[in-house]
Amino acid sequence: MTQFQLYFELGLEHILDINGYDHIIFVIALCAIYLLHDWKRILVLITAFTIGHSITLALSTLKIVNFDSAVIEFLIPVTIFLTAMSNILKKEKMFSTKLIQTNYLLALFFGLIHGLGFSNYLKSLLGQSKGIVSQLFAFNIGLEVGQIIVVAIFLLISFIFVDLIGVQRRDWRIVISSAVAGIALMLMFETKFW
């Protein structure tokens, strides 16, 4: 197995690991306002998130920036909660191009926070290695592919419920976002930040 394959698989497994479900529910919160025909918008949204967390993941792994991990572990569920609550509070007529662009900026910004959360994991894998560019790249590609898998599964489930069964899009968005917000609240209270 090449080094690229190793770090790609580590990134992929990191996202798809059910024990690290905070990232999965954040991706679901990002996608909750979209349906299958919005797949291009979602791809841009997920990529904006990946760019955000790639930046801080690299900066933190290279020890250029350093944040208290307890604060980051608290802020990650806060970003999930804020995203879910934003989905709940949106009116259907608010889904304009300007709102979509705001979602991209929020995904990028929240990605910066999530990248700091990944950095401790990646630092432990890399140890004292100096040349980490290819490992970071492979790890981030694995993360992106994992996110796309989560998005594809979520969009398929959304298609079944909204397009085939006939659940109202608004109801679907509110139920999914409410569930995510509830889980995020539990995660916030479980952190050692308090």
UniProtKB/TrEMBL annotation:
<feature type="transmembrane region" description="Helical">
    <location>
        <begin position="71"/>
        <end position="89"/>
    </location>
</feature>
<keyword id="KW-0472">Membrane</keyword>
<feature type="transmembrane region" description="Helical">
    <location>
        <begin position="141"/>
        <end position="165"/>
    </location>
</feature>
<protein>
    <submittedName>
        <fullName>HupE/UreJ family protein</fullName>
    </submittedName>
</protein>
<feature type="transmembrane region" description="Helical">
    <location>
        <begin position="43"/>
        <end position="65"/>
    </location>
</feature>
<feature type="transmembrane region" description="Helical">
    <location>
        <begin position="172"/>
        <end position="189"/>
    </location>
</feature>
<dbReference type="Pfam" id="PF13795">
    <property type="entry name" value="HupE_UreJ_2"/>
</dbReference>
<dbReference type="InterPro" id="IPR032809">
    <property type="entry name" value="Put_HupE_UreJ"/>
</dbReference>
<feature type="transmembrane region" description="Helical">
    <location>
        <begin position="20"/>
        <end position="36"/>
    </location>
</feature>
<feature type="transmembrane region" description="Helical">
    <location>
        <begin position="101"/>
        <end position="121"/>
    </location>
</feature>
<keyword id="KW-0812">Transmembrane</keyword>
<keyword id="KW-1133">Transmembrane helix</keyword>
